[in-house]
Amino acid sequence: MARQVNAVTERLRRSKVNSPVDRRRDIERPPGPRAADLPYRFATSGDICGYFVAVEREYEQIAHTRMLRDHLYILNDPEFVVEFFLNHSRGNMKGRALQGAKAVLGTGLLTSDGDFHLRQRRLVQPAFHRDRVVSYAQTMAAITQRHEQRWKEGATFDMVEDMSALTLAIVGETLFGADLTSDAAEMNTALTEVLTGSGARLMMGGGILRLPTPARRRSVESSATLDAIVQRMVDDHRRIGDTGDMLSMLIAAQEDGEGMSDEQVRDEAMTLVLAGHETTAMAMSWTWMLLARNPQVAEWLHEELDSELAGRAPGFEDLGALPRTHAVIAESMRMYPPAWSMGRRVLKDLTLGKWLVPRGAMVLSSQYALQRSPRWWDSPLAFRPRRWIGADGAFSETNPGQPRGAWFPFGWGNRRCIGEQFAWTEAQLILATLAQRWEPQLQQGHAVEPQPAVTLRPKGGLPVTLRRRSGG
Ligand code: HEM
Fold first, then answer.
1. Residue 86 CA: distances (Å) to CA of 100, 348, 413
2. Which of 388, 338, 21, 331 has its CA nearest to residue 164?
3. What is the pLDDT of residue 248?
4. CATH number of the domain that 445 lies in?
5. Rg (CA), the chain
């Protein structure tokens, strides 16, 4: 473990990137909230989601504020969101939070930029082609059925932990041919520490992890635990040889002399393990919470599952006939987007509307705020999956009638989530399998509160009691 702690400490040291800083004094900036508000909320674990919602209400197009030394532009106009993240995607780099996350993830797909990112993306892309996702579906369904064996009437547990164990097993087996089941508890504890400890303040930049505090020590140790698990997976894989999966492709690329170092293989593997299970686990956890709170929606979903599947296990070919299942997940991700905000640092001056956004400035847009805006969504605080179903009974992401930039749970452009199809398939198969027979109930007295760390997590977990559906 000492070797891993040293490696993490070294990564932390190197995670400091030289990025341009916006020091322009000669330009007009859009109006916005007081400079101290946001850093104060980050420092005190205040209501950050509430902050972005309030800013979206008050400044309908764009707001300017300060985030420590940085000028921060918050985009609230869906047209600006599309223009910036889609049309200007090459003129910016990842923002503070993901630069900070390099301390844990290293330089993988999520955190890298420019030509290096493009090369890695091309390398990893084939593992996410539709045909591959169809072939993963069988494994996803089989792992979910195996997982269901552990669900017992009256059992009480933390749904976040349970869903994380399930999605970790799925990503491990589909992409890496690895059984990570026995690592789930250790991984969850380490990841919770990394994400909700100092990680909750990563938006302030990687510097937060370089301060010698007890929280930093815990984060480093947890990150070292994650390293050890992923390194073992890579080492095992090298021993077994090429199995045609994702990790085989990464190792082969290294051996073909494309220049991937051991560390880069590790960084990509770590990125895919973490990005590939944490987000879907959060989407599923919030979905169970919303179904428990909205029994009439749960009943509407059960009708579909009972009539289409009648108790049998779902497969990829069933998904088209399960629009309600799709809609429940979309509506859950609208209200509780696992990726709740996206930030970038601008590398070239650009204009949005009448505003110059200079090189070095930070730009941020919050899915949480835009996907709850009354400007674009009817009754935005109501859990209404029906809004995604058209008159023809089919699911479509355009059915609610929102403008393009008001719905972006998987991001935009060249940095759009590579695992989007994987995630939709996985989430639908998990929900269709488990909701056929189970109605998890929220434990009384536990206030559910969103905690915006790198992902949007339920603060303190989501304690549930399992109930078998009558007739299910
Ligand atoms: C509900 C589930 C998921 C959500 C909401 C989600 C969301 C996102 C978002 C918003 C981004 C863009 C971040 C940015 O632009 O700063 C992203 C990127 C990424 N996601 Fe996902 N994701 C999910 C599932 C997955 C899965 C299952 C995988 C892999 C198995 C994955 C792997 C990645 C990777 C590697 C990137 C970086 C892509 C790049 O920059 O080229 N994600 N995800």
1. 23, 15, 5
2. 338
3. 83
4. 1.10.630.10
5. 22
Q: Is residue 471 part of a domain?
A: no
Mean pLDDT, all residues of the chain:
90
Express each pLDDT in 285-309 by its tens digit.
999 999 999 999 999 999 999 999 9
Task: Please give the model's pTM, rounded to 2 decimal places.
Answer: 0.94
- CB 467: neighbour CB atoms within 10 A? 15
Q: What range defines the domain where residue 250 resides?
A: 2-465
- The rounded Å distance from CA 278 to ligand 1 centre is 10
Asked if 300 and 324 touch (Cβ cutoff 8 Å), the reply is: yes
Residue 472 inside a domain? The answer is no
Mutate to test the pocket of ligand 1, among 279, 333, 335, 397 (most ligand atoms within 8 A of CB): 279
Cβ of 230 less than 6 Å from ligand 1: no
State whether the beta carbon of 171 lies less than 6 angstroms from ligand 1. Answer: yes
Determine, yes or no, domain membership for 470: no
Residue 120 alpha carbon, nearest atom of ligand 1: 41
User: For a substitution probing ligand 1, which of 84, 111, 417, 429 has the most ligand atoms within 8 Å of its CB?
Assistant: 417
Q: Look at phi and psi of residue 438 and say left if phi exceeds 0, alpha if psi is from -120 to 50, else beta.
A: beta
Ligand 1, residue 416: give the atom nearest the CA: 12
For 371, left (φ over 0), alpha (ψ -120 to 50), or beta?
Answer: alpha
In a domain, 216, yes or no: yes
Nearest CA to ligand 1 atom 16: 342
Q: How many domains does the chain fold into?
A: 1
Does residue 14 contact residue 98 with C-beta atoms inside 8 Å? Answer: no
